[in-house]
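Narrative summary of target 7.
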Amino acid sequence: MEVECLDRLYLNGYLPSLATAGGLIHFLTEHLGKPLASPALRGQITQRWVEAVKRQALEQGIPRVHFQHGGRKDEVAQHWCRQRGVRDQVVFIGVAQEKAQTFSGRKEGSTFQYDRDETVHVNHYYFYIDDEDFGPIFLKVCSYAPWSLKLCLNGHEWAKRQMEKQGIAFETLDNGFLSCAEPEKLQQTCGRLGPEDIERLFRKWQERLPLPLRAQDREAGYEWRLSIWQMEVSLTQIFDRPQRGREFFEEVMRDNLDLGRPDRLQLIFDRKLTKATPGPFRTRVMQQGVHPSLHIQYKNFDLKQYFKEGWGLRTEGTFRNPKDFAVNKGLANLPYLKRLGRHINRRLLEVERVSHNRGLSGDSIQRVVQPTVTEEGQRAPGLKEEADGSGGQF
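Modeled conformation, tokenized:
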């Protein structure tokens, strides 16, 4: 079985009207009707919002968790998901101090001026949610102006919920699929996820959660927009014989350690590279325990291959800056980036197929000349080695 699907998608939510110092001053004075754009007003907005978060948590019995510095948030999230087991609700609210770029204010005469040049450690609130259609997601909100947020979701989890609604049986492979009773419908479903679904998800929880800007602020035009911060496009190929699949992947990995060279990257990314093309371009093999993975880097794009959960070859491209491909970060460009990611994954496999078919590897030759044992238990001799006349052997 093969499944092509959007994997993890990390979106940035920003307020265009508050992106500049002038926009913030206009918001505090003209929109809120205050005589001065005092920094105290920002603090009041934040304090009001924090109190609203605490109130909702108390009224709905939502746990609040303070993340430890350096701790793994995913492990905490998995623990609370198992503990709570809720559907279409907030599972828990996490609080973490993290860096944020915010406005610094100073008084000049009888007015206040702002510069967006200050980096501070401030509280960020993580709303971990089990959504009816998308499964596990989280929304992270910064407590300081301009109150940016991030939305994280997973396309495989969305596809699982759609399969459940259609009554189609499937087996999971971590966050992916091991098998499916109707693989064609599964692939059709994975290809259907688009910007409209994500916008609908965001607006739904924007109405349900307390946020720094209220409904009347949003109606006045202070509305968050979503842009693509990080996007993963994956292809998972399940092997009938997993052990052979793992051996095949390790052979391919050894044969393709030069994929980071510009001449070979051109084959994968279908882009002409010159000395003036900004990098970096490289190939890396990374080891986690006994599980190796192959990484090919093109600018900020990471193309990764590994053998997933002992069953399938996962080829996964990660966009970290769509501008590397002359595309802006707007959510409307998601379908184009998804198609581009699929093509890159397929071109990598084609390049590897060609290099794999050029000749037998050293391990393959050794298996040919070594004796083997048949299924009936009989030993079959290997090919006889012959001298090549020069002191060596074939």
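The first strand starts at residue 2 and ends at 14.
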